Amino acid sequence: LASLGLADGVVPNAFAATEAPGTFALTSTGTAGRTYQMTIAASQLAGMVNHNISGMTFRLNNASTANWPPVAANFASWDIYMGQGVAPSAMSNTFAANFLGPVTQVRSGALSFAAGSFTAGGSGSTPNAFGPMITFNTSYLYTGGDLALEMRFSQQLGATTQSPFDAVAATDTANGWGTLFAGRWTSSAAGVTGNNGNFLVTNFQSAPVPEPATMAVLGLGALSMLRRRRK
Predict the structure, then answer these.
(1) Is 20 exposed, middle or buried (0-12, 13-18, 19+ CB in 10 A)?
(2) Does the chain have fewer CB atoms within 10 Å around its N or its C terminus?
């Protein structure tokens, strides 16, 4: 990623390279699908200010003994929304109330996780590798402040086992739940309200926005190359 100008930002920061103490089964075979929302304090996102966030991914909890999913897990829709959010300490059970101002839909459409694409093998404090990137259709420019992110997705088809992802339990305030980050979820893709949810260890893919001076230099370089080709 670094060679492409992309950066990884793991939230919670404390578990970037260390196994989190909890787990969360994000996906569901329930016919109504699910809604999962997270709020993240600005302090956890300091390395991504003025970055375009273009994707996100999760990892298996290292109690998992086998790769997931055992066969492809398919979703007819997986929509993601981002925007300025309330502080995690102020997160409400009402999803809409946790966004402050405009909300940007960064992803829509179907999603599929190939068989075995989330790998097991971590143990002790060593976490598993992050799985496949959920790439956004539209990147989100993060300029600072607390952030809210919401996923609404349909019933999981194909694989019948749920995703045992690495997470921080909603009761684990000592590790930052409720101050540095928080989560809510409900068993419906059309849900309006939800209950406390464990917070997924999430790896965001982002790239810095070029400074105006850099853009000008790049533009001059491209013009110079064009002129040389015409000679």
Answers:
(1) buried
(2) C
